[in-house]
Amino acid sequence: MQATIQKKKFYIDGEWRGGVSYKDLISPYSGDVLAEIPMANEADVDSAIEAAYRAKRVMRNLPAHERASILERFVQKLSERADEAGEIIALEAAKPIATAKGEVARTIATYKFAAEEAKRIQGETIPFDAAAGGEGRVGYTVREPLGVIGAITPFNFPMNLVAHKVGPAIAAGNTIVLKPASQTPLSAYFIAELFEEAGLPKGALNVITGSGKTVGDRIVTDERVNMVTFTGSPAVGIGIRNKAGLKKVTLELGSNSALIVDEGVDVSEIIDRAVMGAFSYQGQVCISLQRVYVHESNYDAFVEAFVEKTKTLKYGNPLDEETDISALISGSDVERAVSWIEEAKNGGAEVATGGGSDGNVLEPTVILNAASDMKVSCQEVFAPIVLINKFHSIEEAYDLVNDSPYGLQAGIYTENVHTALEAADRLHVGGVLINDIPTFRVDNMPYGGVKESGTGREGIKYAVEEMTEMKLVVFKK
Ligand code: NAP
């Protein structure tokens, strides 16, 4: 238990402001109180939006090289304090420290990409004389910042998913009101501190914490907010879309990502990576490997090697460098996951390993022969649970992958180039990974889903497109 519990403050208009009420932030692993977090009321949200609204002009007028310099200085500061940043993530999210440090390294890369992208936001010239009646004109397009971006982020990548909103928003000359997940506010406040030091103009970034509904509803419905960028669960995302009216909305939602292992693949080469994809951060990754479909010729070998590797994973304290698996984000998530495993067992599926829990730690669980209508298959498990099923023909495998309300990313291992190209065509997802698991992301690639996995794309260049609007300028000579 820490000796003194830090009382955090909102970051609004370049100032640190206390709240009227506070809530304890509890470690999901130890149950210790980590900090006291201010809970925003309507007036706090209003102040944050007003500050962002007032700062619009300053940010819009900031030259690209200055926006880039602010982001570069921020990158320098985060690099200097990377270890501290990793510990914050590990503590509040129960993310094993090695994975948390990996997130910090990616966050630094994301802001670097944003600094670079700030300098290449550009339009094009239009050949007006190509249209009859267009002669005697020259014209070009520019991309202008939208204004105020409302950013709502989830708990699972509390630094890098904030970076995917704050980085491109600043690169494009927007201002931001950020509402981080209630379980992971410390990462967001830490980032705000570093932006303050990096010289970001007052009001350009505002961070407020509190109930998703109170803060979220206000951000989503306020007329001064021009765009809502949300990463989180489909249920909340759909609610946001329904309330946002004509605001631009980007939704990065959940999935039950799948992998096909074709005949002829040497399974020993892919097991380590597949196990990592299924259980990294306890399966609480939007592209966690949840469903594996293996050709009947490889099935037994794959299952045996996968289960054996799974049994070597170490459970424990997220701050321990040796830990692979720590606590789920909440006790209710453990209960939900256990009840879904029970449903699968009762329906005739086989649990090959795992299934038990200790406190908030759920054992990594491998389920065989789960029917496609079981919750562990057709919903997003967001827990260390993976299904392995057999297929007989590649056609059947495509159908199994596509039989999902979601479509974020899918992977296929195959030795056959024709199958690879056909899979790229047939899988209905935002990204197809050939000879890799679906759990792959680097921060400059376009990233986002189809179906209930969302709309819009992140990856700095693509997020900048979403956060700007095109204007046409035509000169009559
Ligand atoms: P969540 O429960 O949907 O929460 C996400 C954010 O929305 C939090 O800040 C939450 O605040 C807020 N919120 C809750 N109710 C709201 C409302 N009525 N209006 C506006 N905002 C509201 O998701 P989570 O459990 O944190 O994250 C897990 C989900 O995120 C999974 O489905 C995962 O797949 C998805 N995800 C997707 C991606 C992607 O890029 N596609 C990446 C990571 C995660 P509170 O915390 O205060 O409730």
Please state the average pLDDT score: 97
The tally of strands reads 25
Total domain units:
2
Note poorly predicted spans: none
Kindly report how far apart the N and C termini lie: 73 Å
Cα shape? globular
Level-1 CATH class name of the largest domain: Alpha Beta
Largest sheet: 7 strands, mixed
What small molecules does the structure contain?
NADP nicotinamide-adenine-dinucleotide phosphate
Radius of gyration: 23 Å
Helix content range:
25-40%
Say what the CATH topology of the largest domain is.
Aldehyde Dehydrogenase, Chain A, domain 1
- SS-based structural class? alpha/beta
Question: What proportion strand?
Answer: 15-25%
User: Order of strands across the widest beta sheet?
Assistant: 15-18-19-14-13-21-22
Helical element count?
16
CATH architecture of the largest domain: 3-Layer(aba) Sandwich
Tags for this entry?
477 residues; alpha/beta; Aldehyde Dehydrogenase, Chain A, domain 1; Aldehyde Dehydrogenase, Chain A, domain 2; 2 domains; 7-stranded mixed sheet; 6-stranded mixed sheet; 16 helices; 38% helix; globular; binds NADP nicotinamide-adenine-dinucleotide phosphate
